[in-house]
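step 4 of 6: structure.
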Amino acid sequence: MTGKFSVPRHVMVRQLGDDRVILDVTSGAYFGLDSVGSRIWEMLSQRHSPAEICERLALEYDVTLERAQSDLARLMDDLKANGLLDVD
Amino acid sequence: MFSLLESRAQDAPETAAFAEWHLPDGATAASFHRTGLGYLVRFPLLADFEISNDTSAITCHPTPSASQATCRNLYMNQVLPLALSKRGKLVFHASAVELPSHRAVIFAGPSGSGKSTLAAAFATAGCPFLSDDGLVVEEADGRKYRAVPSHPSIRLWTDSEHALLGVGPQPIEAPRSKKRLGVKTAMAFCDEPRQLSRVYVLGDPDAAAPRFEGLGGSQALIELIKNSFLLDPQEPSLLASQFDRLARLVAHVPCFRLHFPRAFDALDSVRHAIVVHAGNPH
C-alpha cells in the first residue's frame, strides 16, 4: 500500500468513547467504527502512511505486522467503497 | 398551519421520490418528493401531504376512499413530526413518561415495538405520559435535555386497549389499524416538559424478564439516528446539525437497550423494573 489518504468534506465523524460514528451528509448513510477501526481512522486522518499505521497497530495491539496489514486493508477497502476515504 | 382539502386521486408527482418508507412486506408506506414549493409526502392509497419549504403550511388531499380520521392520524403521527424535524427539532419514534422522580424516560423503537403500550401501562398506573410517538426532545441549560409533551392521546392496538383499560376511554378517532384513545381519567397526561434522565431503546421481545443492556456512545448514537424523524435526509446542513446534536445528547443522557417480554401480564413487573433502573445512579 502506498500513498496518503484524506477524509472527504462531505464526511462527518464524531468520537464517542473509544468508538466513532461516521456520517456521509450527502447520502445520509452512517457507519460505526469499533475501537480498533476508530484508532485506524484517527491515524488515517492524521495522514500517517499505511506502513506507519501498520507498525503502530502491531505495537499497540500486540499483533503481527501481517495481521495489522490485513485489518487495515479490509477497513480501507470498506471506507473507499462507501466514499468515506479519498486517495491523494 | 394544517388544512384538510378536497379529496383527489393520486396523480404522478412532479419529481421522482428521493426517499421512501417501506412496510415489513416491502410495500411502500410513504414516498417523499420535492416540489416547487417544498415537499410532497405521499401515503399510497391514503393521502398526499404538501409541506411548504419553511413548514409553515401543510395541506392534505385525501384519496376518495380515505377518511378524515385517517388523514388526521397520518398528520399527527407522521407528517407533523417530519415537519418539526425540518425546523431543526430532534424528533424521535419514541414514547415518553414521567416517573415518580418527575424526570422523563423515553422508549424508542419502530412501530409495533411496544412503545405505546409501555406508555399506556405507565399512564394507567399514575405515571403520566408525555407522548406516544413523534417525541420532541429539546436541549436545555447546556447538558440537560427535556422531553416535550405532544398530543394527549395514545394509539393502542385493540388487545392492548382491552388489557390495560378494560372498557376504558372511548375512541375519538379510528385510524387504519390502531385506535386513538382520548385521555379522560384512565390515563394521566403530563402537559409540561420534563428533564430527560434515560433513553431506552426497545429490544428483544422474547426476553423472559426485563433486562437492561448499556449502550456505548456510538451504539446509542446509531440507535437514535435510526429512530429519528427526518424529512429531508439529503439536506446536508440539517443532517449535520442533527448528527451533532444527537452526538451531544448521547454524551449527556444514559442510553440502554431494554429487552422485555411483550406479554400484558408482565407489564407491571416491566414498569417496576424501569422505575428502579431509572432511579439508580449511572
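step 5 of 6: annotate
 - Residues 65-81 of chain A form the longest helix (17 residues).
 - The beta strands of chain A are 5-6, 11-16, 19-24, 30-33, 86-87.
step 6 of 6: archive
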